[in-house]
């Protein structure tokens, strides 16, 4: 299924067994719950999916595991590479494995300038027919994709959308003013998701959706229906959980949320470690309070 870049796209966590091996049944179980809850696409192998610990073959295994679901939602694979050659190779293999689209980060490790970053995106896009969502997150990845850079990319037909994670909400209006609807805009920061939608974002690439998909879908729908008061009420309930998405341990925190909602496991790959002690008590308290006051949908 071709991505529309509207609605809610979970950046799903990768499930592992206690020994560190991929846990495909647990991965698929979570994705099935996402689909039942009304999400519009699945993004795998992102930072929340512990991309840095996955081999290229493991990412393809995840794509292949979701082939039976492609008639229901598009399957998007993340590409995060430090080399143009490796990024092109990953794009080609993702297409061969049955991915419906790509999320593409700027080059990692080396802080490429604007011309280098634009060239990187163009070369990767030229290597595949898959639609591409660019990931604009200068806070974590140190390279901003500016409006001027997007002007150089607007003729690249398969670069269709951007995950907007600059933390500058004004950027949504800048993009709409500059390009109209040429690029779909996906809000990429959980703690700014309602604001992003109200300012014109077309959808969300979300984190806490991994544990709370129904609530995330309802929040999106309320915002798009103009039911702002209802959306704000749900957002205020959600916010203590959404704060976990902007913490360096978002993977561990969100996986613990998945355990509490019965749709995930807590195992992570080193150097990450499962949280313990006072930190764990604090996070579990936040989760338990949220569950005690969870709205019914």
Automatic annotation (TrEMBL):
Gene3D superfamilies for the chain: Aldolase class I
Pfam families the record matches: DHDPS
Keyword Lyase among record annotations: yes
Keywords from the UniProt entry: Lyase
Entry-linked InterPro entries: Aldolase_TIM, DapA-like
SMART domains noted in UniProt: DHDPS
Lipid biosynthesis recorded as keyword: no
UniProt cross-references to SUPFAM superfamilies, sorted A to Z: Aldolase (SSF51569)
Family: Belongs to the DapA family.
Identification of the protein by name: Dihydrodipicolinate synthase family protein
Organism annotation: Carboxylicivirga linearis
